[in-house]
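Checked the freezer inventory, then went back to the computational side. Two predictions to log before the end of the day. The first one is the construct we discussed on Monday; recording sequence and tokens without edits.
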Amino acid sequence: VQLQASGGGLVQPGGSLRLSCVASGSIFSLNVMGWYRQAPGNQRDLVAVITRDGSTNYAGSVEGRFTISRGNARNTVTLQMNSLKPEDTAVYYCRAESRGYDYWGQGTEVTVSS
């Protein structure tokens, strides 16, 4: 499974960004997909995940501001980020689980700054 993430950038506080991740390869067995982030000097933390049947889980710090969704083909995952705060600044990574294995995409950088 290969993951290709896109959509990061620079945005002002209060703004919005949309991250997308497309999985290719053995996508028929994809289960959980999601987004994690890592700020400088910090560990990589969960942002939001979504299962194959659409169940979601969010970090408390983003709940109500971020929305994760999955495409009809179940091989894409999107993170709509609204009301962004400077503390959301991080490198965001797409993750997918398939048959017990974890796959990670390359990071996409999100910077929230005025």
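The second is the one RB wanted added to the comparison set:
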Amino acid sequence: VQLVESGGGLVQPGGSLRLSCLASGFTFSTYAMRWYRQAPGKERELVAAIGSASSNTYYRDSVKGRFTISRDNVKNTVYLQMNSLKPEDTALYYCNAIRTNDYWGQGTQVTVSS
């Protein structure tokens, strides 16, 4: 089982990034997918989630209207489009797959700074 995140980087405030998480080794289309983040010295927090058939989505209040989660069950990939980024969005972003098992990626760093 693997979850491999990509797309992180350094961006200026107000900029955009698109994170991707490529899954393998399990039946991706049957799992709900989540994006978490963890900033230095803070607890990991749930950022966004999407159901297995993309029918349901969840966003934490601080990212509503700025972030969009989506998935492609053919490409076994979940995405997080992040717009209007703020310095407080700086964190290590993790992909999580959850159903009967719970899988995690290694994370991709997002740094928002001028």
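For RB: The first strand starts at residue 2 and ends at 6. The chain has a mean pLDDT of 96. Let me know if you want it refolded.
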